Amino acid sequence: MATHTELPRLPVLAQPKRLPPAYRDDRRSVYWVEREPLRGGPDGHTVFIATPRVVQLARHKTCVGAWQPHRPSPIWPVSDGAMTASSTARLAQLSEHRMPHRSYTFDCDPQWEISDASKKASASARIDALAVPKKREEVHPSLDPYWGYRYPVSEAAMRTNPTERLDALAMHKTYHKDFQDARQVQWDVSQQALEALASLRLQQLARPRSRTMIKDDYDPYKIAPSAKKTRATPRVEELALPIPRKVRQKKMAAA
């Protein structure tokens, strides 16, 4: 029996894989590009040296000399000068509210007083004619039966006699000779159906499945031994073959 000392291949496989000459180690930090990362100073903190341009860009933006911050509150003290100041004529003119147009009329009050002249006035014949309500046929003259309008039928149309062709066209379409109406939901059961006797086979099918026939350990994927020993007929083998137009030959790889 061979031992480990007799197998020189194992020490060769146990040696680590040598790195290629052009191999470069991974970066120690994502912020270091092509130089070593900065190290901590005497106090343990990293000291960064920025250029004057970087220092200038790092300063915050200064405000304009005339800029004033927002008032801390909507309520502020009023100076004595503002309290004792007198407004100019222009300021007094601008402080006046805007006047409405000279032709503007305000909304009428829902309740107003009727003058005595209106109470004692008598309507003219024209006003009485305009006050009479219109008939529905006149209000909706669009010949629409929905509004109560009916098309007038002339006396000649009422007394005329239709032709044979018109009578034939006026008859409704009859059903097919084999047409049967939909069966009603409820119907009378015939006497023969009430007195009929079920056959033995019908009684067997109508009987509910017995609890003893149910197998708890039934496996639907288990193949019967007889099915394993059966042989397919030539016709079954013919039907099992793939379609010739869908068969594709395998390509042989070149040696």
Automatic annotation (TrEMBL):
Highest taxon of source: Eukaryota
Keyword Repeat attached: yes
Keywords: Repeat
Keyword Transferase (UniProt): no
InterPro entries recorded: SPMAP2-like, THEG
A GO BP entry: spermatogenesis
Annotated protein name in UniProt: Testicular haploid expressed gene protein
Origin species: Elysia crispata (lettuce slug)
